[in-house]
Write a structure and sequence with these properties.
With 259 residues, this protein is α/β, with parallel strands linked by helices. It is built from 11 helices and 13 strands. Strands 1, 4, 5, 6, 7 and 13 form a 6-stranded mixed beta sheet that branches. A 5-stranded mixed beta sheet has the order 10-9-11-8-12, sandwiched between helices. A two-stranded antiparallel sheet has the order 2-3. The protein is 41% helix and 23% strand. The chain has 2 domains: 158 residues, Periplasmic binding protein-like II (D-Maltodextrin-Binding Protein, domain 2); 92 residues, Periplasmic binding protein-like II (D-Maltodextrin-Binding Protein, domain 2). The longest helix is centred in the N-terminal third of the chain and has 22 residues. The N and C termini lie far apart (56 Å).
């Protein structure tokens, strides 16, 4: 009788541990919900809306493909970038996937994927004064518009640039410069390539000096098993060419990191 009781106890404990492990799995959580909730901002060419109001872009398309590989749908929620970690932790979103720089702070607060694209923070100024601002030293005294909580804000703080205006998005930072409310902006180089210069909505703006170099990745809740799942997906997508195919659609193929 004692032997039977011991066997039953082991079985109950095993089932309980399995149930706990399942409950603790972000992958299982997302699959049970039938959707992967992706936290983004309006950031062309990574995440932005088409003429029908649908989210498109390199990161948006890649997130949809990843969600499909998990057997779920991607749902996009525009977030306040400064609150991204809180949004993850309270499960308002499942992943931050929006041209996110893999800083030490980000990697400490989130379970991050492997880097999949190179980037830099670049200075945006009006075309007619661009020749005056071709070095880090030459821009030091400018008034900068930066997205609150962004890598751009972090790099100008590190450089000791004191004059800054915090705005909600990188797109807002561009508007600050276009309206001459700020002398310059600091935004991601991939966004700059898509948003400023000839043939864009900001033909009177250009980018000059790069302030750093960095890498993009996606971020999940700390300890999430979705990060490993995404790494496997990125490796497979790179191997079969679909990752580069999506990148070519949005003109970012030169920035892609081999997986």
């Amino acid at each position: 009788m004692k032997r039977i009781f011991a066997i039953l106890l082991v079985m109950i404990l095993s089932l309980s541990m399995a149930a706990f492990a399942e409950a603790d799995s972000d992958l299982a959580y997302v699959q049970a919900n039938g959707k992967l909730v992706v936290g983004i901002t309006d950031f062309e060419p990574m995440d932005y809306k088409d003429e029908n109001g649908e989210w498109i872009g390199f990161d948006a398309d890649l997130a949809r493909a990843f969600a499909e590989s998990l057997g779920v749908e991607a749902e996009f929620i525009e977030i306040d970038w400064d609150n991204k970690i809180m949004e993850l932790d309270n499960k308002s979103i499942d992943v931050v996937w929006n041209g996110m720089t893999l800083t030490e702070d980000v990697k400490a607060a989130m379970e991050t994927s492997n880097a999949y694209a190179n980037n830099a923070q670049v200075v945006i100024v009006p075309v007619d004064v661009a020749d005056d601002y071709q070095t880090v030293e030459s821009v030091a005294e400018l008034t900068f518009a930066v997205e609150n909580g962004s890598a751009g804000e972090e790099v100008i703080d590190e450089l000791g640039f004191a004059n800054k205006t915090e705005v909600a998005t990188q797109a807002d930072a561009l508007m600050e410069v276009a309206s001459k409310t700020s002398d310059a902006a600091v935004i991601d180089s991939l966004m700059a390539a898509a948003m400023v210069g000839e043939g864009t909505g900001y033909a009177n703006l250009t980018y000059t000096v790069a302030l750093n170099s960095e890498e993009y990745g996606a971020g999940f809740r700390k300890g999430s098993d979705l990060a490993a799942a995404l790494n496997d997906f990125l490796a497979a997508a790179y191997a079969d060419g679909s990752l580069l195919e999506i990148a070519e659609t949005y003109g970012v193929q030169a920035a892609i990191i081999a997986q």
